[in-house]
Amino acid sequence: MPDLTPAYDIHRSYEDNYKEGPFIKGEILPRTLIRKRKFLGFEVNSLLGIPAGPLLNSRWIRAYAALGFDLPVYKTVRTRAMPSHPNPNCMFLKVTGQIKEDDFGRPLVATDDSPSRVDEISITNSFGMPSRDPKIWQEDIEKARGVLGEGQILIVSVVGTPGERDLADDYAKGAAFAKEAGAHVIEINLSCPNVVTKEGSVFTDSLVSSAISKSVKLAIGETPLIIKIGYIADLQCLADMLAANAPHVNGVSGINTLPFAVIGQNGAPALPGEGRRIAGVCGAAIRQCAMAQAARVVALARKEKYDFSVIGVGGVMTTQHIQDYFNLGVDAVMSATGAMWDPWLAYKYWKETNLL
Which of 109, 117, 296, 329 has its CA 20 to 30 A from that of 145? Predict the structure, then answer.
């Protein structure tokens, strides 16, 4: 069985990965760039990126930018420090084929068995959207922007935290901090199943999500704004959410992980700690749901003539999956789990297509 070693060591804590990662072995080869592409008003080398999650700090941004991911998203930050859920944060899952809507509500089983191929990897993802103090991450975002090459842009993911101020105001404050630190583009994370408070599910509420996107857009002005959404099974609900947010946003990214209860072989919850019964599922098994939603968002955007870009995310494990997303009509494609286990994914796509 091949040894699939991810850049993020799932056997170590979030803090260890933050301080010592990424754990990438092998030589980073240069690309010969032929032409630039347009994305949110920027000229970029390619339309490939890493979504919010794996890129924990500027060191991770540097590594993956050098590997050819020209649209890196800095892991979600908050207006106050927040610790990660305890280890384990990622576990392999026993999943055969693709998750379908009929599977929703059923638990998935964690396993210690490592898949033999990248395109078979499905994992839990349970971090709880941790964040350094703004002073720390602002300094690091400035550093991250400085390590990017020509034709690369820094996208910073922001989430609001319920508490001292209105949630929309907190999103806006965090977005303003990220812009001040040097973000080319702001992404607001409206979807994360790994938190127990309401900031993880606001994408399902058209009124709340649009109030947040409006508040953030007012705070960041001309800086492009992306919203990151989760899976919405009901087409009318998806249409309503897009209609409510379209006036304020420049891009829609999705999907985030799919929420599932994750259990061990003994039937008990696999992840220790309060509020972790439901975890995010990502990797190969969510591709069917993710692509179905991407296609719906593209279709709705064309029908309603919305002026926003669509970023396809979810289950992108191989170069063929990248192309499959582009065939749907999305404007950019991002890979998290696939790029964690195969950091050379963008380079392979460039080599195959020679179009980047």
Answer: 329
Structure confidence at residue 34 as a pLDDT band (50, 70, 90)? confident
- CA-CA distances (angstroms) from residue 214 to 53, 129, 228, 241, 274? 24, 22, 14, 13, 33
**What is the 3-class SS of 233-297, one letter each residue?**
CCHHHHHHHHHHHHHHCCEEEECCCEEEEEECCCCCECCCCCCCCEEEEEEHHHHHHHHHHHHHH
Residues 306 and 242 sit within 8 Å (Cβ to Cβ):
yes
Phi and psi (nearest 5°) for 333?
-130, 140
pLDDT value of residue 66: 96
User: Where is 4: in which H helix or E strand?
Assistant: none
Euclidean distance between CA atoms 302 and 290, whole angstroms: 18
Mapped onto helix, strand or coil, the DSSP state of residue 333 is: strand
What residues contact 52, with CB distance under 8 A and at least 6 apart?
73, 74, 75, 76, 157, 187, 189, 228
In the chain the domains, ranked by start, together with CATH numbers, are 14-353 (3.20.20.70)
Active centre residues (catalytic): 192
Q: Which residues pair with 157 in a beta bridge?
A: 187
pLDDT at 356: 43
Q: Left, alpha or beta for 114 (phi > 0: left; psi -120 to 50: alpha)?
A: beta
Q: Which of 82, 77, 80, 84 is nearest to 15 (CA)?
A: 84
Q: Burial level of 207, CB count in 10 A (0-12/13-18/19+)? A: exposed
Strand stretches in 190-236, DSSP E: 225-229
Q: What is the pTM of this model?
A: 0.95
What's the first-to-final CA gap in the chain, in angstroms? 33
b/e map of 227-257 (b: 16 or more CB within 10 Å)? Answer: bbbbbbeeeeebbbbbebbbebbbbbbbbbb
- The one-letter code for the residue type at 313 is V
How far apart are the C-alpha atoms of 231 and 327, rounded to whole Å? Answer: 20
The span from the CA of 270 to the CA of 356, in Å, is 41
